[in-house]
Design goal:
24% strand, binds 1-deoxynojirimycin, alpha+beta, 19 helices, binds beta-D-glucopyranose, ten-stranded antiparallel beta sheet
C-alpha cells in the first residue's frame, strides 16, 4: 500500500493522506539554521546545535505522535482546522504534502477555502519562512481568522526538558508590532534571541502557552482559537509561545498570502540593548524586511532551487529504470547531504541531545558527499583528523560546535583509524588535491602536536599494525563497526554502557571485519604512498597487507564463509561451531570488497553462503541464527530481541557492502538485486509494512526472526545513505574515482 507517490519532475514526494504509518519528515536548511518538518507541519528548529541552541520545543515519544510544530489554525464559523491536519485533526476535504529538496509544501482545503503552506530555510539566512497562501475557492465571500503557533524551547534542549524548578521562572518575551521576540536568558549570558513575525498588522497575539491553550487543554483544542480572539498575553516564566491572530476576508477566487518568519538573531555584546531591558531589534527588523513580500520569498525560493540544481548536477544517470534514476539523481544524494549536515544528531529517532559527531560515521558519510561539496569534505577531514590521538587511535566522537574530541564514549573502537584512510582516499580520488596531505593537523586538538595529514594516515595504519591478537588479526577494542559486538565488556548491571564497561584494551578479542578493512584501506594507503613518492613505504605496507590476507584466509576462514571475530576467551564468533550467530554479514562484504579470496574461490563461496543463510525478501539480515539469550561475552548484540537492530535485523548499512562485493566477483545482476531489496523507491508499494518514509533509507528493517518482519526504524541519519550511493554509483554503475583518474 502507498500513502503518496513520487513526482520526479518536481523532485518531490507527494503524500496524499495525513494518516501515514509514522511521521514522514523533511529537512530544511543546510548551513546553520535547520528545521525538521513532518508531513503534518510537526517538528522543530535549531541553530547549529540541536542540543544547545534549540529554538522551538518538541516532545519526543509523545502521544499522539508528533504533536508539536509550527501550526496554523483556521477558524471559519465554528469550524477549526489546520492545513496539515494536526493538531486539531479536523477532517479535510483535500490534503497533500510535497516534500522537496530543502522545502515542503502542505496544502489543506476545507469548505471551499484552500490553505497552502510553503516552508523553507533560505540559503544564507538564519530563519524558516512559512508562507501561508489562502484562497477562497467558493463562490461566496469568506471571513475567517488565522492563528499561528510555535512553542519556544529555552535553548538547551536537555535542560529544557528536565530542569523545571528553574525553567518555569526564566521565560521572557517582548512584543512589538507584529513581531514576538523570545529572549529568555538574554538579560544575562546569552547574545541571541528568536523572533516570530508576520508581514501584516495583526489583530492580536499571545505569548503565554497557558493563556493560549486554556486550562486543561492541549494544542488540539486551544481556548483562544475556540473563542476566535487572542488575549495579548505576555509570558512571565512558564512556557513562552508565539501566536499571531490575523482576521481575513476573501472574495470568491481571491487569494492572500501571509509570510511568517521564525528567525534566530545574534547581537554583539555591546549591541545587545536598545534601551535598558529592551533588546536591540535592528537585525531582526532587517531580517523581517528581507521576506516582507511575495516577490522576495519567490526570489529566495529560486535561490534554494538553484542551490540544489547545482549540487545534483555533478553526478546523474539516465537509465531505462525510472526508480534507479530517481534514487541516484534525487533522493539518495539528498539523503547524503542531510546526513552530512546532521551526522547522527537530529531526526525523529535521534533526539538531538545525544551523540556528538562519530569519527567512523563522519568518515563514511564523506564517501557519499565528497563529489557534491569537495571543499567542505576537505574541511571535515581536517576536523576529524585533528581529534586523532598521537598513537593513531581516535576519540569515537567529537562535538560539532567545538570540533573537539569528547570522552563521552572514549576511544578504543579499533576500526575508527582505518576509516580516516577511506575518507582521504575518496577525497583524493574525487579531487586530485594532494595538498591536503601536507596540511599540518593537530593530534588531540593540540597545536603543538600538529603533523601533516599524511602522518595521520601513517599512524592510523600503524595503530592496527601494532595492535594484533593471538591469531595475528586486529584487536577489536571496545567494538568495531558493529557497536554492539562488545567482546571486552562483560556487562551484567542494568543501565551500564555496553561500550564503555570493561577493559577496552582486551589483548585477545580480535576482529576479522577490521582485518578486511586493514586489507582494503591498507591497499588504498599504499596507493597514496606510491603517488607521493614513498615507494619503499608503500611496499612495506603491501607486505603487511599480504600477510593479513593470508591470516584472514586461515584463522579468519570458517570453511564456507569468513568468521566474524574471536572473543576474549579466544572462541570463534560467527563460525559453524557457534550455537547462535554462526554467520555474520559484515566480514563477507568487507573481505570480498578488499579482494580477499577473489582469486582462490573463498570470495564466491562466502557470498553464496550469504545468499543461502542470510538473505530474505526484504534484505540481508546481519547474522543467523539470531541470539535468543544474553551472551555476557558478546555484549549488546545479544541484548536485542531476535530480528531487531544488530541482532539479526536487516541493518541496511552493510547490505551495500555485499552488493559491492558481488560486483567484485562479477555478479552484477545479483548486486543489483541486493540493491533493490532495501532501496526505498523499489519498496514504496509496501509502505504499510515498511512504515518509514518511502524516499529515504532507514538504519534498520526488522529481520525474519522478528514479529514485525519488514518494518523499518531510524530513518534518515544512517551510513546507509553514503554506502548505497557508493554501491550504486561506483560499483553497479561503475564510475570509480581512483588516484589515477
Ligand atoms: C546501537 C546502539 C548504539 C549506537 C551508537 C546502534 O546501532 O544499536 O545501541 O548506542 O549504535 O553508535
Ligand atoms: C550506528 C552507529 O552510528 C554506527 O557507527 C555503527 O557502525 C552502527 N550503529 C552499527 O552498530
Amino acid at each position: 500500500m502507498k500513502f503518496g507517490h513520487f513526482d520526479d519532475d518536481a523532485r518531490e514526494y507527494v503524500i496524499t493522506t495525513p494518516r501515514t504509518p509514522l511521521p514522514w519528515i523533511n529537512y530544511l536548511g543546510s548551513e546553520a539554521f535547520f528545521s525538521l518538518v513532518s508531513h503534518t507541519a510537526g517538528g522543530y528548529s535549531f541553530y547549529k546545535d540541536a542540543k544547545l541552541r534549540r529554538i522551538t520545543r518538541y516532545r519526543y515519544n509523545n502521544v499522539p505522535a508528533d504533536s508539536n510544530g509550527r501550526y496554523y489554525y483556521i477558524k471559519e464559523g465554528s469550524t477549526i482546522w489546520n492545513p496539515g491536519w494536526q493538531p486539531t485533526q479536523t477532517e479535510l476535504d483535500f490534503y497533500e504534502c510535497r516534500h522537496g529538496l530543502g522545502y515542503s509544501i502542505i496544502t489543506g482545503k476545507k469548505n471551499g477555502l484552500a490553505a497552502r503552506l510553503e516552508l523553507f530555510v533560505p540559503v544564507g539566512d538564519n530563519c524558516e519562512i512559512d508562507r501561508l497562501v489562502l484562497t477562497n475557492e467558493s463562490d461566496v465571500p469568506k471571513s475567517f481568522t488565522v492563528f499561528s503557533y510555535v512553542e519556544f524551547c529555552l535553548w538547551n534542549a536537555v535542560d529544557d526538558s528536565t530542569n523545571f524548578q528553574r525553567n518555569f521562572s526564566t521565560g521572557e518575551v517582548e512584543v512589538e508590532g507584529s513581531t514576538i521576540y523570545h529572549k529568555t536568558e538574554y538579560r544575562e549570558r546569552r547574545d541571541h534571541y528568536a523572533l516570530f513575525t508576520v508581514n501584516t498588522p495583526i489583530d492580536g497575539f499571545d505569548t503565554s502557552r497557558d493563556a493560549f491553550l486554556g486550562a486543561w487543554r492541549s494544542n488540539a483544542n486551544p481556548e483562544v482559537v475556540e473563542n476566535g480572539r487572542c488575549t495579548n498575553s505576555v509570558a512571565h516564566g512558564w512556557a513562552p509561545v508565539g501566536v499571531h491572530q490575523v482576521n481575513v476576508t476573501l472574495q470568491p477566487g481571491e487569494s492572500r498570502s501571509l509570510i511568517f518568519v521564525l528567525g534566530y538573531i545574534e547581537n554583539p555584546e555591546d549591541e545587545k540593548w536598545a534601551a535598558p531591558g529592551v533588546i536591540n531589534k535592528t537585525r531582526a527588523q532587517a531580517m523581517a524586511a528581507r521576506y516582507a513580500t511575495d516577490a522576495q520569498v519567490d526570489a529566495a525560493l529560486a535561490r534554494l532551487h538553484a542551490h540544489w540544481n547545482n549540487l545534483l548536477s555533478t553526478y546523474a544517470v539516465r537509465s531505462s529504470d525510472e526508480k534507479l534514476d530517481r534514487m541516484v539523481n534525487i533522493w539518495n544524494q539528498y539523503q547524503c547531504m542531510v546526513t552530512f549536515n546532521m551526522s547522527r544528531s537530529a531526526s525523529y529517532y535521534e533526539s538531538g541531545t545525544g551523540r556528538g559527531m562519530g569519527f567512523r560515521d563522519s568518515c563514511q558519510d564523506l564517501l557519499g558527499f565528497v563529489h557534491l561539496i569537495p571543499a567542505r569534505a576537505r574541511e571535515r577531514i581536517l576536523d576529524i583528523a585533528a581529534t586523532q590521538f598521537p598513537d593513531g587511535s581516535a576519540y569515537h566522537q567529537y562535538q560539532p560546535l567545538t570540533k573537539k574530541g569528547n570522552m563521552d564514549i572514549g576511544s578504543g573502537f579499533n576500526d575508527d583509524p582505518l576509516w580516516l584512510i577511506a575518507a582521504v582516499y575518496a577525497y583524493l580520488g574525487e579531487t586530485g588535491d594532494y595538498s591536503i596531505l601536507d596540511e599540518p593537523v593537530d593530534f588531540d586538538n593540540d597545536h603543538s602536536l600538529a603533523q601533516p595529514l599524511l602522518e595521520h594516515l601513517r599512524r592510523s595504519f600503524g595503530y592496527l599494525r601494532t595492535h594484533k591478537g593471538p591469531h595475528g588479526l586486529p584487536l577489536i577494542g571496545r567494538a568495531d563497526w558493529n557497536d554492539c559486538l562488545n567482546l571486552n565488556c562483560f556487562s551484567d548491571t542494568p543501565g551500564e554502557s555496553f561500550q564503555t564497561t570493561g577493559p577496552s584494551e582486551g589483548p585477545v578479542a580480535e576482529s576479522v571485519f577490521i582485518a578486511g578493512m586493514y586489507v582494503k584501506y591498507g591497499n588504498e594507503f599504499a596507493e597514496i604512498l606510491d603517488s607521493t613518492a614513498h615507494t619503499d613505504e608503500a611496499a612495506a605496507v603491501r607486505a603487511e597487507v599480504a600477510e593479513m590476507e593470508h591470516t584472514v584466509l586461515t584463522a579468519g576462514w570458517d570453511g564456507s564463509w569468513f568468521r566474524r571475530a574471536y572473543d576474549a576467551y579466544g572462541h570463534v564468533v560467527g563460525g559453524q561451531e557457534c550455537e547462535e550467530g554462526q554467520i555474520f554479514i559484515e566480514p563477507q562484504g568487507m573481505c570480498v570488497m578488499a579482494g580477499i579470496g577473489v582469486n582462490t574461490g573463498e570470495a564466491v563461496t562466502a557470498l553464496q553462503s550469504v545468499k543461502d543463510k542470510l538473505d530474505t525478501k526484504y534484505g540481508i539480515v546481519l547474522l543467523q541464527p539470531a541470539y535468543t539469550k544474553y551472551h555476557l561475552e558478546l555484549g549488546e548484540i545479544s541484548s536485542y530481541p531476535p530480528g531487531y537492530k544488530e541482532n539479526a535485523g536487516i541493518f541496511c548499512h552493510n547490505n551495500p557492502w555485499v552488493s559491492c562485493a558481488e560486483t567484485v566477483v562479477g555478479h552484477g545482476d545479483r548486486a543489483f538485486e541486493i540493491y533493490k531489496k532495501t532501496c526505498p523507491a523499489y519498496i514504496e508499494d509496501i509502505s504499510e509494512i515498511h512504515r518509514t518514509e518511502p524516499y529515504v533509507y532507514s538504519q534498520m528493517v526488522a529481520g525474519c526472526d522478528a514479529a514485525t518482519f519488514g518494518e523499518a526504524k531510524n530513518s534518515w541519519l544512517t551510513g546507509t545513505a553514503a554506502w548505497t550511493f557508493v554501491d550504486v554509483s561506483q560499483y553497479i554503475l561503475g564510475i570509480q574515482p581512483t588516484l589515477a583518474g
